[in-house]
Each structure stands twice: as C-alpha cells, then as structure tokens.
Specification:
Layout: E1 6-8, E2 37-41, H1 45-57, E3 61-65, H2 68-77, E4 82-86, H3 94-103, E5 110-114, H4 119-128, E6 132-135, H5 140-155, E7 162-165, E8 168-171, E9 176-179, E10 182-184, H6 188-199, H7 207-214, H8 225-236, E11 242-245, E12 249-252
Parallel strand pairs: 2-3, 2-4, 4-5, 5-6
Antiparallel strand pairs: 1-3, 7-8, 8-9, 9-10, 11-12
Amino acid sequence: MRPPVTHHHPAGGASRHPFRPPVTHHHPAGGASRPFRLLIVEDEKRLALSLAKGLTAEGYAVDVVHDGREGLHRATEGTYDLVVLDIMLPGLNGYRVCAALRAAGHDVPILMLTAKDGEYDEAEGLDTGADDYLTKPFSYVVLVARIKALLRRRQGAGASPVHVHGDLRVDTAARRVFLGEDEVALTTKEFSVLEQLVLRAGEVVSKADILEHVWDFAYEGDPNIVEVYVSALRRKLRAGLIRTVRGAGYRLETAP
C-alpha cells in the first residue's frame, strides 16, 4: 500500500514558514491557464513540507512524497512540469528514479538535491538524465531561480530559426538536435549549453558566459560543471565538434 501524497495547492494564504522570500506575486506561476505542477521527492519531511509551503506561496501546485518508489510512480502517472528529486531516498535512490523516468521516455525537467559534493556525483546524475543540481544546504532563493529557469526553457522562447552547422542541425524552438540524419536526445541542461555555443558558432564562449546564461544568477556550485556538460555533449555528438580554447572557453566547430 502506497503512502498518502501530500498536496499543496496555490492559495493566497499568508502562512508563515522559514523559507518564504520577501516577494509579491500577482499571477499564478504558469500563467492564467493553470499553475505549474511540481513534484517534490524528499525524505526529510520537514524540509519537504517547508519547500512545498514556500513554492505554493510562489503560485505553484505542489505534491510531496517521501519515498523513491512512490516518487517514480507519481512522476510516471502524473502530469508534472518539474520534479525536485533528492538523491538519498528510501526505496529507490534519486539516480535510479531519474534513470527509470528517462528510460521510459519522460522528459520532465529534474532538479536533483544532494548532500554530497563534487564533480563525480554531478557526472553520475548527468548520466541518468538530470537537468540541474543543488547541494544541501542551499538558498531558497537559488532554488526558486533554478526552478524558474528550467520551466522557462521547457516552455521555449517561441518560434526560432533552425541553426545548421555542417551536419549539425539545432532547432531552438522545438529544442531538437540532429547530427546528420539521426536525432540526438539531450537533457534540458545539455541543450541549453549547446544552444549558447550554437548561437555564437565560431566564437569563443567563456565558461563564465555559459554559467551566466544557463545557470542564471547566484550559482554556488563548482564552475567546472560546465566541463561536465561539454564532455557529455562531445560523447553524444562528436568529439571534435566543441573545441576547448585554453584559458578562454569553448568554440563550436563546423564540420569540414
């Protein structure tokens, strides 16, 4: 028997909680049609419920579960716009939940929460298809910024041209990537990094520029995370496609 799910629906209440930032919202997150639906999978119940209260006050519709298996079930059966997923969970850990969702074809953005630190953990999560990370303890303001950034990228920026560079074709509206005749599946974060390089193809794009545009403001993690994503793009696309310019950044090379 599965444990009950805690639901938090956006209401205009003024309940107090330690994470609520001093901001005012006039419209529900997600626009007039419906609020964005978030799933929090976190076994630290006080943290999970505090985050849910704060995000509900931001205008999101939030569900909370505390077990990896239940989180996988809810994410598979529900129509969520984003999943906040802890790594250390009972039942199934966050890596396995994320990998199972991606294997089943679900492309919902996943923001992983980890108490660990270091590039190895980020790389492991990247391999399972996560889109972003926060290391505990984290700032609530940064969490909200990351969620908003992932949701903006999921919505897309409207009609955009298709960028063609040799045998690489990047559709920034549909957020699809083709290498020759084959479509390449990228995570939201991988696509965002590639997009920055594509929009400035032939130019050197610094690591700082990529961090600023892809991770937004107040990124507190290791700036070497950019290297992790560039390495993943090289594996999925072609090794020589993204050139490292020592001390300067990265440059997208076109095929001869």
